[in-house]
Amino acid sequence: xxxxxxxxxxxxxxxxxxxxxxxxxxxxxxxxxxxxxxxxxxxxxxxxxxxxxxxxxxxxxxxxxxxxxxxxxxxxxxxxxxxxxxxxxxxxxxxxxxxxxxxxxxxxxxxxxxxxxxxxxxxxxxxxxxxxxxxxxxxxxxxxxxxxxxxxxxxxxxxxxxxxxxxxxxxxxxxxxxxxxxxxxxxxxxxxxxxxxxxxxxxxxxxxxxxxxxxxxxxxxxxxxxxxxxxxxxxxxxxxxxxxxxxxxxxxxxxxxxxxxxxxxxxxxxxxxxxxxxxxxxxxxxxxx
Length: 289
Prior knowledge:
Blueprint: H1 15-18, H2 21-28, E1 34-36, E2 38-39, E3 42-43, E4 53-55, E5 65-71, E6 74-79, H3 91-99, H4 102-120, E7 131-134, E8 139-142, E9 148-149, E10 154-163, E11 166-171, E12 183-186, H5 193-205, E13 209-220, E14 226-235, E15 249-254, H6 255-262, H7 278-287
Parallel strand pairs: 1-6, 10-14
Antiparallel strand pairs: 1-4, 2-3, 5-6, 7-8, 8-9, 10-11, 10-12, 11-15, 13-14
Helix pairs in contact: 6-7
């Protein structure tokens, strides 16, 4: 069974509480409540491993909180912190994600997505008025025209093109040396998942594809809230014409080469994406099926 990163949160999102201000205020005064510890936008780690949680007594009453959900009767929150425009994904958060339990990474991913959304929606898209959080932090309302705004997720296709027992992987200049991953791109308006997969592979690598099969999906909290939709496409050939604005290099790899990369073998010909990235899950699915 595929378990992509940023999935498997133990928190009950408790949507009914978001629409009940009285019940939400009661949770804010519940001494059992926990507030996610952050260092800027990065997660603080507990000494015993996992996420660090503050008690409600440690949090100022002026801090705006988002209700992440409930676990064993205890409310869990995250503060809406200011994003000062720093790195989209710091080295600290990258290191944290390599050691966090999957369920903790899922909680952090939700929190990070919501914080970024609040920071980018302080003003109303309809009238330009100032917005304020409401619905337990799962929305913002304009103080001028009362328009309600809610978090959105941007769909992204991420895929392997397959031909004659091999799949296509590529690398961008920002990748660590030797790292290759699946190709990816945003869905455009009026486009199906299958159409987006075929378009992106052709635009980035010049490869025409036919049938597309869905594999799995994963939320991705960096650079906005995205839903990564992992697929495998049947390629019509192996000749490459790279868009060098998108890719520095691309190559076809066998299952043996993919397994060696995923196992970090000494004789690997490329380095695989990190385990919490869906490209890793997708490559594993293909390499062992």
